[in-house]
Amino acid sequence: NAGVTQTPKFRILKIGQSMTLQCTQDMNHNYMYWYRQDPGMGLKLIYYSVGAGITDKGEVPNGYNVSRSTTEDFPLRLELAAPSQTSVYFCASSLYSRGNTGELFFGEGSRLTVL
Amino acid sequence: DAKTTQPTSMDCAEGRAANLPCNHSTISGNEYVYWYRQIHSQGPQYIIHGLKNNETNEMASLIITEDRKSSTLILPHATLRDTAVYYCIVTGSNYQLIWGAGTKLIIKP
């Protein structure tokens, strides 16, 4: 099992550009998440999905969009990149059962800089 | 989800037990306590979780007080590789996990 795979690992964007961060998991997990982490801070939830075709906003969704067409994939779209979106982005997945989110498995992160 | 309070940083000597405290005084009956750690800038790694009873696995032990308002993560024999930021999170059916800044644990030789 590869676990959770994120691409790209690094990216530099110009202000106003758009891009998609890819996330794939091969554990057949129903829940998937996108977090961002600014220096010295904890993780903040951007969007999450409880299954294919179902997504919802987290704490900091502005400037981002997601889709979940399959169980495996959960891409994060940045529209009109701004310097405030410079951050490290983590994708995670978990197997939700019996009222518990379960252990979250994280990808290695995608480091995005907007100049 | 309930909020958690952790010390900003802690030191521990290599080979000794590292005890990391966490307060979660507003925890509700169906909420679990999870611990994760983040080494350098890698993705967080799951350590252990519990509901009411104390738990132990190959990495650590989790001690939850009887009133469930606080818990302690114990790394029995800390090594230099245990230097990391440790996050205590309380979560239940609400999947919007709230991550604080965690405790930066430094293991000293």
Rg value of chain B: 13 Å
Number of helices of chain A: 0
Please indicate the percent range of residues of chain A in DSSP E strands (runs of 2 or more). Answer: over 45%
Q: How do the strands line up in the largest sheet of chain B? A: 1-9-8-3-4
Got a strand count of chain A?
A: 11
Would you tell me the overall average pLDDT of chain A?
A: 93
Beta fraction of chain B: over 45%
Shape of chain B: globular
* Biggest sheet features of chain A: 7 strands, mixed
In one word, what is the shape of chain A?
globular
Spatial gap, N to C terminus of chain A: 36 Å
Discrete helix count of chain B: 0
Q: What is the structural class of chain B?
A: mainly beta
Radius of gyration of chain A: 13 Å
Which runs of chain A of at least 5 residues are low in confidence (pLDDT < 50)?
Answer: none
Q: pLDDT below 50 for ≥5 consecutive residues: which ranges of chain B?
A: none
Multimer state: heterodimer
End-to-end Cα distance of chain B, whole Å, is 38 Å
Q: Count the beta strands of chain B.
A: 9
